[in-house]
Specification:
Elements lengths: L5 H21 L10 H28 L8 H27 L8 H30 L8 H12 L15 H4 L7 H18 L6 H17 L4 H19 L9 H14 L8 H15 L11 H8 L1 H21 L1 H5 L3 H35 L6
Helix pairs in contact: 1-2, 1-12, 1-15, 2-3, 2-12, 2-13, 3-7, 3-9, 3-11, 4-13, 4-15, 7-8, 9-11, 10-11, 13-15
Length: about 375
């Protein structure tokens, strides 16, 4: 069994689905009343896609010591296309909120407080684990000054918007969480852009405070981080959907078999590209997302309650899969030297055994960290 094989991918998905099915029998967390059940289910596929992608990246890292894209377009796109679709989902949901704000005026304060409660607690938890692992590896000894440690921690607590330096001089810092936090500054950049976006989308302008705040933060982030235009294009691709949803002809049946076939064809064509940053590939991803968001459930696959369950816990999956399992098991369980000598079959079996643990811990992260803070945000009737 090769971790770059499509069979490997299907088995991991199968194990994850079965694990989620068993958990969901006793604890149902899917929101059956969601307006966008296709999007909820899509998230489930994407979160696992990133985990499978990093499983392949880790395998190559153990072989050649290089953290690079897998030698398989399928495994590359499971990571890159998944993140691109995550960006599109974010843009779709919040541009929809702005576009429909004539029905319910946006409370900007509540919106940002709700984003804080939604994203920060689980992120802080994941960073605490990362820091603990760094100091365990460092044998609890300071390798740099205490002042520099504090500075490094502050950088990480800003979602690496300011920087994501090695903590305590550990070269494994970014490796521990598989580098997944790179996408979070883009999410925050988009959230901070919303007041400016609303000026374009609707006639009613936000209060001046939020416009000024938006300008200051957007310019500050853009000056600190390189903003890849291909990722901005992903957000634009998701922002198109609310307009299509609002203004396209009701006669168009996006749920039809024809559009399902178009999605499958587009997904197949995506696999011919080495990177999702190719403009044609990006265009195909935008087609896939828009058809799904407009109501196509891909022959009923996206109506699955199990996928919706996995979608609910996908933020925890995204943040902790690299930390707790891939790094901890490879570094502390096997040790790098022994892990390097694992056959492809042995490595694949290890990932198969890890997969149920990823789902279970992601569920716990959602249940005990994400959900309680989301409930706090909802108490004052905040918009989520």
């Amino acid at each position: 069994m090769n971790p770059l094989s499509p069979i490997f991918v299907f088995i991991v998905y199968g194990i994850a689905f079965f694990t989620a099915y068993l958990i969901n029998l006793k604890y149902k967390i899917s929101n059956d009343n969601s307006r966008y059940e296709n999007i909820d289910s899509l998230r489930g596929l994407l979160g696992l896609g990133v985990f499978i992608h990093h499983s392949a990246v880790w395998h190559q890292y153990l072989i050649n010591g290089k953290w690079e894209l897998p030698h398989s377009n399928l495994l590359v796109q499971l990571g890159q296309t998944s993140v691109s679709l995550f960006f599109m989902i974010t843009a779709f949901l919040f541009v929809s909120k702005i576009l429909n704000s004539n029905k319910k005026k946006i409370n900007w304060k509540d919106l940002y407080i709700s984003r804080f409660y939604r994203l920060v607690p689980m992120y802080i938890f994941s960073i605490i684990i990362l820091i603990l692992i760094v100091f365990i590896i460092s044998e609890w000894q300071l390798k740099v000054s205490g002042f520099l440690i504090i500075k490094q921690l502050i950088y990480w607590l800003t979602f690496t918007i300011l920087n994501g330096p090695d903590i305590n001089g550990s070269i494994y810092t970014s490796l521990i969480n598989a580098g997944v936090v790179w996408s979070l500054p883009y999410e925050w950049l988009f959230y901070f852009s919303l007041p400016l976006i609303s000026i374009i989308v609707i006639k009613e302008k936000p209060p001046k405070f939020y416009i000024i705040m938006s300008l200051v933060l957007v310019v500050s982030i853009a000056s600190k981080k390189y903003v890849n235009p291909h990722h901005i294009l992903s957000f634009i691709g998701g922002a198109i959907t609310p307009y299509l949803m609002k203004y396209s002809s009701p006669k168009i049946k996006y749920s039809s078999v024809l559009f399902s076939l178009v999605i499958l064809m587009s997904l197949a064509l995506i696999l011919f590209f080495r990177t999702s940053e190719n403009i044609i590939c990006k265009f195909l991803i935008i087609i896939v997302f828009n058809l799904i968001a407009l109501g196509n459930n891909l022959f009923g696959i996206l109506k699955s309650s199990i996928l919706k369950f996995l979608g609910e816990i996908c933020y925890s999956t995204y943040l902790i899969h690299g930390i707790v399992f891939l790094f901890v098991i490879i570094y502390f369980g096997f040790g790098f030297e022994k892990a390097k000598n694992l056959s492809t079959t042995e490595y694949s079996l290890t990932i198969f055994l890890i997969t149920p643990l990823v789902v279970i811990l992601s569920f716990w992260g959602y249940k005990f960290i994400e959900k309680p803070f989301m409930n706090i945000a909802k108490k004052p009737k905040l918009n989520d």
